[in-house]
């Protein structure tokens, strides 16, 4: 089982290399063959982006930029322009940069997004560099501990042939990383507006949303994870977004907040 797992990981790395090497083939595939599933997040992204000549986005937590990634196919299909951030240096260098090595419309930043320019502690698993493990990294240690408590980490580690320490929490490591605010990031790269803010930060999504000064920056859409938010956090998040004229569409683990101005333009 462990050998099979390692082979799959090597194939994923090679796939990222191939994706970055031949962007034109993928662009043609997503333009001609990609089908939108009714009632999905894809349908919303497609509806609000296809009439815009230029669609600008920022993605927080890009990881490898491909696997289970909600924006990759639209970058290929419609030529979205924007910024993808990923704070884990190894993931950034080994996976994300390869995926987007020939994408002039996409800027990559080895940072995290926060409410202000600062340094913060990132918590991650030190037992594996596989995609399942790097995808759990985040600022909230309690979210990572929960994945250990529900045996998600143990199941994945077993497939990889990894034995967890006697105290599973000992497999958590931390590092200090650089964070930038949305205004700083947009100013640095000259983004004229923000049509989509895509968040995948393992429970930190609401912290980013409530750090937005909506009087100066109003993203057209905000896509965020709901599965790691506590009920009171989700309620507060929905109330804040409603106050600033967003309509929320809910899905199984995620939600998309659509601003009234975005709906008027369509």
Give a quick set of tags describing it:
alpha/beta; 2 domains; Rossmann fold; single chain; 266 residues; seven-stranded mixed sheet; globular; 20% strand; three-stranded mixed sheet
Mean pLDDT: 90
CATH architecture of the largest domain: 3-Layer(aba) Sandwich
Number of strands: 10
Amount of helix: 40-55%
CATH-defined fold name of the largest domain: Rossmann fold
Whole-number count of domains: 2
Low-pLDDT parts are: none
CATH class of the largest domain: Alpha Beta
Would you list the SSEs in sequence order as H and E? HHHEHEHEEEHHHEHEHEHEEH
Can you characterise this structure?
The chain has helices spanning 2-21, 23-32, 41-49, 72-78, 89-99, 131-134, 141-149, 152-160, 182-189, 205-210, 231-243, 260-265, and strands spanning 56-60, 81-85, 106-109, 112-113, 118-125, 172-180, 196-199, 221-225, 246-250, 254-259. The protein is an alpha/beta fold. Helix 1 packs across helix 5 and helix 2 crosses helix 4 (72-78). The longest helix has 20 residues, at 2-21. The relative contact order is 0.14.
Question: What does the secondary structure layout of this molecule look like, with pairings?
Answer:
Blueprint: H1 2-21, H2 23-32, H3 41-49, E1 56-60, H4 72-78, E2 81-85, H5 89-99, E3 106-109, E4 112-113, E5 118-125, H6 131-134, H7 141-149, H8 152-160, E6 172-180, H9 182-189, E7 196-199, H10 205-210, E8 221-225, H11 231-243, E9 246-250, E10 254-259, H12 260-265
Parallel strand pairs: 1-2, 1-7, 2-3, 4-6, 7-8
Antiparallel strand pairs: 5-6, 8-10, 9-10
Helix pairs in contact: 1-5, 2-4
């Amino acid at each position: 089982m462990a050998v099979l797992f390692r082979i799959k990981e090597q194939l994923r790395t090679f796939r990222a290399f191939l994706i970055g090497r031949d962007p034109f083939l993928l662009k043609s595939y997503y333009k001609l063959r990609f089908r939108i599933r009714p009632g999905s997040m894809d349908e919303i992204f497609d509806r609000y982006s296809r009439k815009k000549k230029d669609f600008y986005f920022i993605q927080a937590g890009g990881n490898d930029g491909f696997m289970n990634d909600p924006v990759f196919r639209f970058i290929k299909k419609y030529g979205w322009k924007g910024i993808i951030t990923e704070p884990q240096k190894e993931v950034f260098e080994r996976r994300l940069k390869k995926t987007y090595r020939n994408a002039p419309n996409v800027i990559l930043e080895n940072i995290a997004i926060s409410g202000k320019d600062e340094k913060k502690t990132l918590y991650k698993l030190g037992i594996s560099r596989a995609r399942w493990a790097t995808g759990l990294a985040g600022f909230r240690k309690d979210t990572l501990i929960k994945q250990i408590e529900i045996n998600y980490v143990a199941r994945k580690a077993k497939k990889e042939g990894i034995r967890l320490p006697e105290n599973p929490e000992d497999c958590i490591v931390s590092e200090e990383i650089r964070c930038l605010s949305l205004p700083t990031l947009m100013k640095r790269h000259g983004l004229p507006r923000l049509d989509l803010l895509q968040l995948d930060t393992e429970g930190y999504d609401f912290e980013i949303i409530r750090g937005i000064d909506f009087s100066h920056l109003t993203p057209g859409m905000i896509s965020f994870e709901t599965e790691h938010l506590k009920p009171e956090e989700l309620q507060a998040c929905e109330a804040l977004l409603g106050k600033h004229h967003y309509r929320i569409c809910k899905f199984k683990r995620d939600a998309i907040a659509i601003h009234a101005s975005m709906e008027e333009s369509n």
